Amino acid sequence: MKHITILVSQGAILGNIEGPRQVFTEANQYLSSNGNHPMFEIHLAGYSKSSQLNDGLYTITTEKFSEIIKTDLIIIPAMYGDLMKAIEQNKDFIPWIVNQYKQGAEVASLCLGAFLLASTGLVNQRNIATHWLAANAFRKMFPAVNLLEDKIITDENGIYSSGGAYSSLNLILYLVEKFAGRDTAVFCSKAFQIDIQRNSQSPFTIFIGQKEHEDEHIKKAQEYIEHNFHEKITVNQIASMAALSRRNLERRFKKATANTVVEYIQRVKIEAAKQSLESSTENINQVMYSVGYNDNKAFRTTFKRITGLSPIQYKNRYNREQIA
Questions:
Q1: What's the CA gap between 140 and 20, in Å, rounded?
Q2: Residue 85 carries which DSSP code?
Q3: Count of C-beta atoms within a 10 Å radius of residue 213
Q4: 2-202 adopts what CATH topology?
Q5: Cα separation, 78 vs 18, whole angstroms
Q6: Where does the chain hold its CATH 1.10.10.60 domain(s)?
Q7: What average pLDDT score do residues 107-128 get?
Q8: Number of neighbouring beta carbons within 10 Å of residue 106
Q9: How many helices (H) and strands (E) does the chain have?
Q10: How far apart are CA 134 and CA 123, in angstroms?
Q11: How far apart are CA 165 and CA 203, in angstroms?
Q12: Helix, strand, coil: what percent of the chain each, to 5?
């Protein structure tokens, strides 16, 4: 049996505690109904015998995490609000998580729980996922961690992480399958109506240019791209506008935004295309031309690489008239 400890951290999001507890409990019930032993022993652990969430709106009965000597899997839920403050409030968990990992426990972060996991140092030079909205803040706080912005699930050396919000339940299904088998995971997928095949946050991502840096030349370049995305823009053109050499521009741009200049141009154009596909009656070619593409194949290839969907799939999913 797997001993699972779901942390009830300060500022934790209730859904990231109750959701996993329900899925693991349902998995146990499914196993029992098929004549098998339950797989998961589930514990909620906080600083004391009870933990309050949402400024006291919810009270959860918990065990004291410091009294748990050995566990097999730690679930770190998302936290809300000021994440630096949240990490400080939960810093006592950090040495305990590290010690448990060294004893053989596995660790899984859900959504913004990645910030607390990264604070342990266990994922330095490793891959991790978190909510796409927090990607820029995460990179700034944890430059030694390799953030995979589009991923729903990462699995590396006994450490797991998930994408944002309810996609965290895809990681829980992944863990159910890993420990209790495919049949159990499929049943839970159907019971909770979770798409077990999802593997990317890309269709849900809204590109927000990284401007939380102090390089004014690069901010000027970003603004130029954002105001002229409907034109054919070259790197040399931007370098000239920013009064930088191409090599210097590319080096500083990547450092400031975590994107190359070409990637940034593509993402701005595709974000504009997405907005048109969501709200307008224009066809795919009209949208393509409006964001500065003339090559149909290049547009469709870039669109799918960034969003995970073809332009027509995206339009069918998100355009109001198409849905109606």
A1: 29
A2: H
A3: 16
A4: Rossmann fold (3.40.50)
A5: 12
A6: 216-323
A7: 97
A8: 21
A9: 15, 11
A10: 17
A11: 14
A12: 50, 15, 35
The confidence score (pLDDT) of residue 322 equals: 60
DSSP 8-class letter at 184: H
pTM comes to 0.80
Only one residue has tokens 């053109």, namely: 237
- Pick from 120, 130, 122: nearest CA to 156: 122
Q: Where are the beta strands (DSSP E) in the chain?
A: 2-7, 40-46, 50-53, 58-61, 63-64, 73-76, 106-109, 127-128, 146-147, 153-156, 159-162
Does residue 317 sit in helix, strand or coil? helix
pLDDT for residue 323 is more than 90:
no
* CA 153/CA 33 separation, integer angstroms: 29
Cβ pair 162, 168 in contact under 8 A: yes
Length of the chain: 324
Question: Cα–Cα distance between 109 and 115 in angstroms, integer?
Answer: 9
Question: Range(s) for CATH 3.40.50.880 in the chain?
Answer: 2-202
Average pLDDT over residues 281-306: 95
One-letter amino acid at 262 equals V
The pLDDT tens digits of the residues spanning 251-275 come to 999 999 989 999 999 999 999 999 9
Burial code (b: 16+ CB inside 10 Å, e: under 16) for 221-254 equals bbeebeebbeeebebeebbebbebeeeebbebbe
Domain 216-323, CATH class in plain words: mainly alpha
